[in-house]
User: Fold this.
Amino acid sequence: MNPGVTPPRSLGELFLGFLSIGARSFGGVLPWAYQAMVEERRWLTHADFTETIGLCQVLPGPNIGNASIVLGKRWFGLRGAIVAFLGLFALPYFWVLGLALLYTQWADHPLVTAVVTGVGASGAGLFLATAVKLGRPIAGKPAAMVLIAGCFLAIAIARVSLLVVMPVAVALGMFLARKRLL
Amino acid sequence: MILLELGLYFALLSLLTFGGVSSVIPEMQRYVVDVKGWTTAADFMQLFAVAQAAPGPNVLITSLIGYRVAGFAGSIVALLATCVPAGVLAWCLSGLWDRWRGSPWRSVVQRALAPLVVGLIAAGGYIIATPHAPDWRLWLIAGGTAAAMLATRLNPLWILAAGGVAGALLL
Assistant:
């Protein structure tokens, strides 16, 4: 274990740490999780954090939810996994539900609907930007571009079920990656 | 039994969520709006907007859908169904992943999934910004947001707020 690093000593500390991550994670959790766990509380090294997030990005499921479970388990076993997960979601769950209820009260007001629809379209734009960022490093590979376009057309335009697209795309991706085309 | 149906569907989706929740947004929308008719496409877009604007993991959109479909119980069931199956898998595989450090399979899996995730997230953006027929105003806001996000280092929250203002002016 790295000498500059002290993992949480109690379940309470673990809970409060994840609570503080959930509470402030405006506009995406990852940067705040890094700030809280690596910079402030020094639970993890930078390399350890990157490695754990890397695992959670390869595995299915919500990345940060998975990270809370993996880290909680590492420090305190099953109790740790549950406590970290609950800490992460405790505040954001109520905030998002509260915001949704508030919105429902005002949903008949055309200006409110317009603002929320604008935020939705803007959120869609964040997705597009994320796709561009993630796509840049692989954009030079023709096989990758074909796979990206194929997934996009099948899901967005043809509206094929992910249950069909996913197995086909994963099999194709694994084949191409093994042939070093990806 | 709508709770059971909701739970089973999100549990299945949980295991297909590669690259974060963003990549299954299109599938969620297809099922909730097209297949089940639980909400309209415009309503789905607004739930998505609320989930984006609130702090917290973006998986919380599932609890908003659950709430819309089956109240508080629905919101808890949908959230847990989305997180727990994948969480159990992560629990089981986290030890294995460390043992695979440096194995060529790790790199093969990562390279195989990358294009898939890009295609799915782009599809999510398109579907959310196109709830009905193509609307240039929504596409303009989405395109402007993407450009601002790529060109600046602003917190996304400010960009979402600008999107809300643009919505008030254009829509």
